[in-house]
């Protein structure tokens, strides 16, 4: 126990000093911020003169508009409250062109969370050679679409339909990024693949440049936030900013100590997770687990009553296990204020690499001893409730602070910005591409899709620039960081072996 405390002191000393600089201190104006969405706007202090001037402006504008002197679109820059401007009748839907590029230039004094450092690692492949047109074209055979940003406009050339609405909501997210930082994104051209599993290593003669949601050690792909941050229509999972708030609220309802002292998992075992079901055992005590199969067919019919993620934070321990590749469930599980039992994944998404075993989660090696490892983890946590709570707290703080929507957008901004710096050609709009904007996507949409798009729409430009991207790891620091992570995982295995040996000798 003494040794454990020593290890934790080291872990959390390190964490508190590193996350301090990452925390959000840029906007002193906590009040008056739009909590539902994005970054706080510049604080507007209403003064009598200000109010008068605004009143006069509207008055004059009203006269001009009603008499048809000027086109109403000039004023749409200040009418962001009206989220979507859809045409009516059989008029063709147009894109609004009213992003005021000015007044977003206040530099940010925030340093981005440390996981942003991995942007440099992902792009390292092309650091010397740059990215040529050929490298982009080579990625075409597996891409779902090509995205071109030119003078702040978005063009898309579609190649293959994606699974469900992944491609739509990914594109929607990119459009919202442009609404948040109008005029700030550089011209670029990229290929995007919406599948689960990476293809593996690219050919030797310069790997193709491809964006996707996850990668593994062998693949040279550029990871990008997945569609679920703007909503997953088919499973009724709401946009992240809204759902995160609900989970945080829900967490307050049951204190950690009052939660069910077992490990919880609910999901679909048929996507490469059948091994986990063996840990159900004949009763809950056998492996200390509560495992449930999610029947999506039934959930769809009954209106997703069983699958409300904000109500799934009922246990002290929650299991994360990847499917065919990374799983979008990761952020919902880590946000729960439960200690996450993290079956060490092969694939990573954009934020996973910033997390550390025993600090953000309890590492579990995925092997044929994993049921015993789960059982041990739960027993350990119930014996060391303070430390288990600390891990729970650290992971949910990480998700709440460092994975809030502001930073998801900032990550997208920086990965696109750094990528564009490597391009060795001038992006052009291919003949088969169409222009895309929020109106052309959302206005024809109906039902849940329309709702999620409206709910996740960026209502106004950011008040400041994106956070500042941290410099790359120097190679020795990176090596130490990786070693430290594997050391801590080994440490947990050692505790388990020791405990089993003691039990044997008794
Ligand atoms: C938990 O505590 C019990 C009782 O002190 C002990 O028998 C058991 O080995 C402990 N287990 C772990 C994993 O710490
Ligand atoms: C959890 O973290 C919050 C925010 O950092 C802190 O205020 C709280 O005291 C922590 N709780 C525990 C049990 O560590
Ligand atoms: C990892 O463990 C080894 C041996 O147990 C130790 O020598 C090394 O300093 C540790 N490295 C880190 C980064 O903690």
UniProtKB/TrEMBL annotation:
<protein>
    <submittedName>
        <fullName>O-glucosyltransferase rumi-like</fullName>
    </submittedName>
</protein>
<feature type="transmembrane region" description="Helical">
    <location>
        <begin position="44"/>
        <end position="70"/>
    </location>
</feature>
<dbReference type="Pfam" id="PF05686">
    <property type="entry name" value="Glyco_transf_90"/>
</dbReference>
<keyword id="KW-0472">Membrane</keyword>
<feature type="domain" description="Glycosyl transferase CAP10">
    <location>
        <begin position="184"/>
        <end position="426"/>
    </location>
</feature>
<dbReference type="InterPro" id="IPR051091">
    <property type="entry name" value="O-Glucosyltr/Glycosyltrsf_90"/>
</dbReference>
<keyword id="KW-1133">Transmembrane helix</keyword>
<dbReference type="InterPro" id="IPR006598">
    <property type="entry name" value="CAP10"/>
</dbReference>
<keyword id="KW-0812">Transmembrane</keyword>
């Amino acid at each position: 126990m003494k040794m454990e405390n020593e290890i934790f002191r080291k872990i959390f000393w390190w964490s508190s000093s590193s996350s301090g600089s990452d925390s959000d201190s840029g906007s002193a104006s906590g009040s008056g911020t739009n909590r539902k969405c994005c970054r706080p706007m510049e604080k507007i202090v209403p003064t009598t003169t200000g109010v008068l001037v605004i009143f006069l402006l509207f008055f004059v504008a009203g006269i001009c508009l009603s008499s048809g002197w000027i086109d109403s679109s000039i004023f749409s820059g200040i009418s962001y409250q009206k989220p979507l401007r859809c045409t009516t009748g059989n008029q063709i839907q147009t894109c609004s062109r009213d992003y005021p590029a000015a007044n977003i230039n206040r530099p940010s004094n925030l340093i981005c969370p440390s996981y942003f450092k991995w942007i440099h690692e992902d792009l390292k492949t092309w650091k010397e050679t740059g990215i040529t047109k050929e490298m982009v074209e080579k990625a075409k055979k597996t891409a779902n679409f090509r995205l071109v940003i030119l003078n702040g406009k978005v063009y898309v050339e579609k190649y293959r339909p994606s699974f469900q609405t992944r491609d739509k909501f990914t594109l929607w997210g990119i459009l919202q990024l442009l609404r948040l930082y109008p005029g700030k994104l550089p011209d670029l051209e990229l290929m995007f693949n919406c599948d689960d599993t990476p293809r593996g290593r690219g050919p030797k003669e310069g790997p193709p440049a491809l964006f996707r949601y996850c990668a593994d050690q062998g693949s040279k792909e550029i990871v990008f936030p997945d569609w679920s941050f703007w909503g997953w229509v088919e499973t009724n999972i709401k946009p992240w900013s809204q759902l995160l708030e609900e989970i945080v609220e829900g967490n307050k309802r049951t204190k950690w100590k009052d939660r069910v002292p077992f490990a919880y998992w609910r999901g679909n075992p048929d996507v490469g997770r059948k091994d986990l079901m063996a840990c159900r055992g004949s009763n809950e005590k056998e492996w200390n687990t509560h495992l449930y199969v999610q029947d999506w067919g039934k959930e769809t019919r009954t209106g997703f009553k069983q699958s409300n993620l904000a109500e799934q934070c009922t246990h002290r321990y929650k299991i994360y296990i990847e499917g065919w590749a990374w799983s979008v469930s990761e952020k919902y599980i880590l946000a729960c204020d439960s200690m996450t039992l993290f079956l060490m994944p092969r694939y990573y998404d954009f934020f996973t690499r910033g997390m550390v075993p025993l600090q953000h989660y309890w590492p579990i090696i995925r092997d044929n001893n994993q049921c015993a490892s789960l059982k041990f983890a739960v027993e350990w946590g119930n014996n060391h409730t303070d430390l288990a709570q600390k891990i729970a707290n650290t992971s949910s703080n990480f998700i709440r602070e460092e994975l809030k929507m502001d930073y998801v957008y900032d990550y997208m901004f920086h990965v696109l910005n750094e990528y564009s710096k490597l391009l060795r050609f001038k992006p052009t709009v291919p003949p088969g591409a169409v222009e895309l904007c929020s109106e052309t996507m959302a206005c024809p949409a109906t039902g849940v899709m329309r709702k999620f798009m409206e709910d996740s729409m960026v209502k106004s430009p950011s008040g400041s620039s994106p956070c500042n991207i941290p410099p790359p790891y120097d190679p020795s620091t990176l090596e130490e960081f990786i070693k430290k992570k594997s050391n801590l995982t080994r440490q947990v295995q050692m505790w388990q072996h020791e405990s089993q040996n003691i039990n044997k000798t008794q």
